[in-house]
C-alpha cells in the first residue's frame, strides 16, 4: 500500500546503478580477501601466518553471511516502497488515492509480478549499505588490529588507515540515495546493521583492539584440532606436540604465565603452602619420551601427592 501523493516515492527510475551487484561483490568481498592475504601471507611488516589468513577470511564470510540473512529477512518483512516506486508502477495519469485510505498495486499499469515491481517494495534496509559496511567495516577492524591502533602512542596515520575502508563503505551507501534506490533511513539502518555484523564477526576470531595481543587471532581452534587431544576426556596424545593457548585471562597469584586455558585448578599440598600447576614443560610432550599412545591428565601422580 502507498499513496499516489507521497513525494518521497516520486523519483525517477535509474536503469543503471552507480554500484551494481557485481561491483559490490568485488569491493566488499574480493578486495578484503586480497588485503587480508597481502598482510597475513606476505610477511612484510607482519609475521607470515596461514592461521591468520584462515581466521581473517572466516570472519569476513561470517560477517557478510549474517548481514545478507538479516537484511533479506527485514526487507521481505518490512516491504517499504523505494523512492522510485511510482516510476516503476506507472499509474494512470488520472489515478487518485481513495478518499479514506491508500492505493494498492492494482492501480499500476506495469506487471505487478515483474522483478522491478517486486523489488520496488524492498527499500528497507539498504542491502548495498549493510553489505558494504559488513565487508569494508570488517577490513577496517582487521587493519586496526594489525597496526595496534589503540596502543596509546599517538600515531595519527593509524586513524587514516582505519578510515580508508570506512570511506569506501560510505561512498557505496551514498550512491544508493543518488540512484533513488533507498531513503536515507534505509541507508542509515543498513549501515548500522552491517557495522554490527562486522564487529560481531571480528570478535569471534580476534581479541579486542585495546589488547596487546590484538594482532593475533584466537588459537582456540588450533588447540582443539591438535591431533590426539581430547578436550572433554582430558587425554593428551604423546604422538603430538600441544601448543599453548595465548592467555587472555588475568594471571592469578602463584600461577605461571602463558598457560592459557590449560591452567590447572591445583590442590594444596600436604603442607598447604604450594599450589600445584602445570608448566609449559608439562604440557609440551616430546615424541621421543613417549611410551604410551596417550596419557590421561587425571593419572598424573603429582596430582595425588
TrEMBL record:
Membrane topology reported for the UniProt record: Multi-pass membrane protein
GO molecular function: phosphatidate phosphatase activity
Localization, UniProt: Membrane
Source superkingdom: Eukaryota
Domain Phosphatidic acid phosphatase type 2/haloperoxidase stretches: 57-202
GO CC terms, sorted: membrane
GO biological process: phospholipid dephosphorylation; phospholipid metabolic process
Keywords: Membrane, Transmembrane, Transmembrane helix
InterPro entries: PAP-like (IPR043216), PAP2/HPO (IPR000326), PAP2/HPO_sf (IPR036938)
Family of this protein: Belongs to the PA-phosphatase related phosphoesterase family.
Listed name of the protein: Phosphatidic acid phosphatase type 2/haloperoxidase domain-containing protein
Organism, scientific name: Parasitella parasitica
Lineage: Eukaryota, Fungi, Fungi incertae sedis, Mucoromycota, Mucoromycotina
Gene (name only): PARPA_09485.1 scaffold 36645
Amino acid at each position: 500500500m502507498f499513496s499516489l501523493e507521497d513525494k518521497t516515492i516520486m523519483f525517477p527510475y535509474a536503469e543503471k546503478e552507480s554500484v551494481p551487484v557485481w561491483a559490490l561483490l568485488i569491493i566488499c568481498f574480493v578486495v578484503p580477501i586480497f588485503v587480508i592475504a597481502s598482510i597475513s601471507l606476505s610477511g612484510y611488516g607482519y609475521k607470515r601466518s596461514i592461521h591468520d589468513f584462515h581466521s581473517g577470511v572466516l570472519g569476513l564470510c561470517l560477517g557478510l553471511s549474517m548481514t545478507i540473512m538479516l537484511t533479506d529477512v527485514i526487507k521481505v518483512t518490512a516491504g517499504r516502497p523505494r523512492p522510485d516506486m511510482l516510476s516503476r508502477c506507472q499509474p494512470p495519469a488520472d489515478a487518485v488515492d481513495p478518499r479514506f485510505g491508500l492505493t494498492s498495486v492494482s492501480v499500476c499499469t506495469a506487471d505487478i509480478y515483474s522483478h522491478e515491481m517486486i523489488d520496488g517494495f524492498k527499500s528497507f534496509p539498504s542491502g548495498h549499505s549493510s553489505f558494504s559496511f559488513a565487508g569494508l567495516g570488517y577490513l577496517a577492524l582487521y587493519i586496526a588490529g594489525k597496526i595496534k591502533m589503540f596502543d596509546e602512542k599517538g600515531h595519527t596515520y593509524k586513524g587514516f588507515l582505519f578510515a580508508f575502508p570506512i570511506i569506501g563503505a560510505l561512498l557505496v551507501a551514498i550512491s544508493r540515495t543518488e540512484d533513488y534506490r533507498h531513503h536515507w533511513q534505509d541507508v542509515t539502518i543498513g549501515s548500522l546493521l552491517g557495522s554490527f555484523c562486522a564487529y560481531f564477526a571480528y570478535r569471534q576470531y580476534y581479541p579486542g583492539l585495546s589488547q596487546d595481543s590484538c594482532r593475533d587471532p584466537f588459537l582456540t581452534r588450533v588447540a582443539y584440532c591438535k591431533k590426539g587431544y581430547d578436550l572433554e576426556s582430558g587425554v593428551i596424545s604423546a604422538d603430538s606436540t600441544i601448543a599453548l593457548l595465548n592467555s587472555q585471562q588475568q594471571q592469578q597469584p602463584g600461577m605461571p604465565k602463558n598457560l592459557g586455558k590449560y591452567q590447572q585448578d591445583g590442590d594444596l599440598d600436604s603442607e598447604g603452602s604450594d599450589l600445584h600447576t602445570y608448566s609449559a614443560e608439562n604440557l609440551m610432550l616430546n615424541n621421543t619420551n613417549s611410551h604410551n599412545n596417550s596419557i590421561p591428565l587425571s593419572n598424573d601422580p603429582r596430582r595425588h601427592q
